[in-house]
Every structure is written in C-alpha cells, then in structure tokens.
Design goal:
- The chain is an alpha/beta fold.
- Helix 2 crosses helix 10 and helix 6 crosses helix 10.
- The longest helix has 22 residues.
- It starts with 23 loop residues before the first helix and ends in a 16-residue tail after the last strand.
- 30% of the residues lie in helices and 20% in strands.
- The chain is built from 10 helices and 11 strands.
- The protein has 2 domains: 169 residues, 3-Layer(aba) Sandwich (Udp-n-acetylmuramoylalanyl-d-glutamate--2,6- Diaminopimelate Ligase, Chain: A, domain 1); 114 residues, 3-Layer(aba) Sandwich (Udp-n-acetylmuramoylalanyl-d-glutamate--2,6- Diaminopimelate Ligase, Chain: A, domain 1).
- The strands form 2 sheets. Strands 5-6-8-9-10-7 form a 6-stranded mixed sheet, sandwiched between helices. A 5-stranded mixed sheet has the order 1-4-3-2-11, with helices on both faces.
- Bound molecules: zinc ion.
- Zinc ion (ZN) binds next to helix 10.
C-alpha cells in the first residue's frame, strides 16, 4: 500500500490498495505505441461519500482543494509551474484523466471520453510564452481545452516530493523498505522530498535487480540500461522518477549500491562510474515517462478517495496513451 498525505477513508470498491506493481501484468500485454489496456484500468467510479450522504459533482475549485491536500504547491521546486493551467473554478468536473504529458494524443483521448479535467504530471507551459496562437502545438492544446470546457492542472515536482509521490511509488514497486527522501523537502514532512533511498529485503545480483526494474516498467522502446557488474550484490537502492542526475552527490552520501533514475547523459553517468572505479553506485537508466507513469494509478486512486470522502462523485481514469517520445531502438542484440 502506497502511503498518501491523506490516508484513504472512503470505500473505493476494490481499487483500494492497488499498487503500481499490480498493474504490471496489464502493461505487458500492451501494444507497442498505446499503453493499451489502461483505458479500462484505474477507473475509480466513486460510489459516494458515505451512507446517507448525497453525492455531488465537484467543481474545478473543489478538485483543486483536494489536489492541494495531496500534493501541496509548497512542495514544488522554485523553477516549477504547477497548479491550474486552464479552467474556471466554478465549472463542474465529472471526468478526470491523469497523464504524464498533456500531448495532443492525450487530449484526443480526454475529449473523446468527455473529460472535464486533465491532471498532467508535466507542465504544458513551464517556460513563459508570449502567444497561445492555435498555430503552435501548445497554443492548439490551450484552445482545444478551452473550447471543450476541459480544465488542465499540473502536479509536477509537488507530486514528486509528496508522501505517495512519484519516487515513493517507484520505491514501493521495487519492494524497498525503510524508505527516506534523498533530498528532504524544505517545506514538507520529514518523509517528503525529491528521490527516495531504501533497502531490499535481501541482497540480489544487479542483473536480477535490473530484471525486476524492467518488469515493473511499461513497455517502452528504450528498455532499461545498466552500468555495473551484473553479478554484484545490491541491497541499498536509490530511486528518482524522471531525470535524476542532479542527485548524484546525494546518492553517493546515501551509500546506495544502485541508483534507478531516467535521462542519464553520457558525461554525468560516465563520471559517476569513473569515480566509483567499478564499484557502487551502479546505475540503472529507465524511461522518463515510464518512471513517472507508475505514479498515475495510485495518484488517481488517492484523489478519488479524497473527493469521495467529501461527498463528491466523479470518474477518474489514467490515460492509455504512451507519451514516451521514442519509437524503436537498435542494439547489438544482447
Ligand atoms: Zn518528468
């Protein structure tokens, strides 16, 4: 069970307790491009907020309050842009779609389903813009959202840092114990911050651990890359969903045997390996999208629980679109 800031209280009709690892079997059956099968997954059609309580459809403002409870904006990094991107506070929200990226294909899916809110991990507009003309793809997304009456909310580094956030889900899916943040949050609970480090119940060979990492990830073209001795035993594991090469110093001081993150580039990665002289920390580089996609189902469940607890009813679904940018890979064949 992945912890959340607000412990679940409402009955989610069987979705309660679903972990990221529990959806692996569905992922493995997916087709190459779409993360197929997900469209029917993690749909929390809530039954209402308790006996005798009338159910109500929340407004955008109601959902924002619930989001703030789970993933407070105060946990976001200073450079980030989180919160409401498009939408009116008083508009009703009957259907919410969770996604890693607010891409055009995700928008197609959302509007076809009739979503009235998209919760996206990555910001559509991280950097300032001077136009949202529909001739550009970001402006087109903004136009389509407004024309369809669909709100867009970003839960980015606040979703990384919070209890039950992206790296907590990754740590949970890998079976880590005694998990702590790699970089504790300045404004959060002691267990909040960027990245996590914890221990496996028993040491395993790096090659076997890499297989375990591969098994929890969605099927993406890039697969999983590993630096280190395949037969070396690892027990202490650091993780950071998304791009984590800014945390190498923290990883070293945590005494992690292996670091699982995404977007590792040549120079930072090779310098870590040179400094380690063949020893720890080993590196496991996974899909940026995949490492964050794992969070969507627990996040959707947590939001559904908070809303149900307040007597709101809304459909919540995880996008079935694979927004990993890579389509195929060539390797020497090992
Ligand atoms: Zn990311």
């Amino acid at each position: 069970m992945i912890p959340v800031r607000n412990p679940p209280r409402a009955n989610l009709g069987g979705l309660e307790g679903r972990s990221a690892a529990g959806i692996t079997g569905v992922m493995e059956q997916n087709e190459q491009r779409a993360v197929a099968g997900l469209s029917g997954l993690a749909v929390a059609t809530l039954e209402g907020g308790g006996s005798g309580q009338a159910v109500r459809v929340p407004t955008v403002g109601d959902v924002l309050v619930a989001i703030e409870e789970l993933w407070p904006e105060s946990l976001a990094e200073g450079w980030d842009a989180v919160g409401l991107v498009a939408g009116r506070s008083g508009n009703p929200v009957g259907k919410i779609l969770f996604t890693v990226d607010p891409s055009g294909a995700v928008l197609d899916e959302a509007l076809e389903w009739g979503a009235t809110m998209i919760v996206s991990h990555h910001p559509l507009l991280l950097k300032p813009v001077s136009t949202v003309a529909a001739s550009g793809f970001k402006g087109d997304v903004v136009h389509r959202l407004i024309e369809a009456g669909c709100a867009l909310v970003t839960v980015h580094t606040n979703g990384d840092s919070a209890v039950g956030g992206v790296s907590d889900v990754l740590a949970d899916a890998l079976g880590l114990q005694d998990v702590k943040p790699l970089a504790p949050a300045a404004n959060g609970l002691p267990e909040e911050g960027i990245g996590r480090v914890g221990d496996l119940a028993t040491p395993v060979a790096l090659g076997d651990f890499a297989e375990a990492v591969f098994s929890i990830m969605p099927a993406v073209a890039g697969g999983v890359r590993v630096a280190g001795d395949k037969d070396a035993l690892v027990r202490r594991v650091a993780v950071c969903g998304g791009a984590g090469d800014s945390l190498f110093d923290r990883v070293r001081s945590s005494d992690a045997d292996v670091y699982v993150t995404a977007d590792l580039r040549h120079h930072p990665a090779s310098e870590v390996r040179e400094a380690a002289a063949g020893g720890t920390p080993y590196l496991i580089d996974v899909s940026h999208f995949g490492s964050e996609w794992l969070w969507l189902t627990p996040a959707a469940d947590a939001l559904g629980t908070v809303l149900a607890d307040r007597g709101f009813t809304t459909d919540i679904r995880v996008s079935g679109v694979n927004t990993d940018p890579w389509d195929f890979v060539l390797t020497p064949g090992h």
